Amino acid sequence: MEKDVKKKLKIECFKCGGKSHYAFECLSKKKDKKTMQVTWSDSESNQSSEKESNGSEECTNFIAFTACVNEEPLLKEASSELSESSDSNDDDMSFDTTYDTLYKECLSLK
């Protein structure tokens, strides 16, 4: 156990020159990390930079977008399409008979 402590004390950080930690564990490195700010236009970026330099101004300008979908017209359109397709029962009948014929042929091949 004592060897581990001595070994840890010999470790030197290349970032800050401190002892007992590596550069990837260095607290000063973590403090240096910057955040990225994304804006819609350059003018917003300049305004936010000015606010940051002024000190402790708080951002209170928020916008929320919502949407509402009315499904009734879609349902009416779908039901009208269904009623139009039900008029073509002849196509359905020919499909059914063709399917039955193919099914019987498939069974006979086994």
Automatic annotation (TrEMBL):
Renumbered residue ranges of the record's region Disordered: 33-57, 76-96
Source superkingdom: Eukaryota
SUPFAM superfamilies noted in UniProt: Retrovirus zinc finger-like domains (SSF57756)
Domain named CCHC-type: residues: 13-26
UniProt keyword list: Metal-binding, Zinc, Zinc-finger
GO molecular function: nucleic acid binding; zinc ion binding
UniProt xrefs under PROSITE patterns: ZF_CCHC (PS50158)
Coiled-coil regions listed in the entry: none
InterPro entries: Znf_CCHC, Znf_CCHC_sf
Statement: the UniProt record of this protein carries the keyword Zinc: yes
Protein name, UniProt field: CCHC-type domain-containing protein
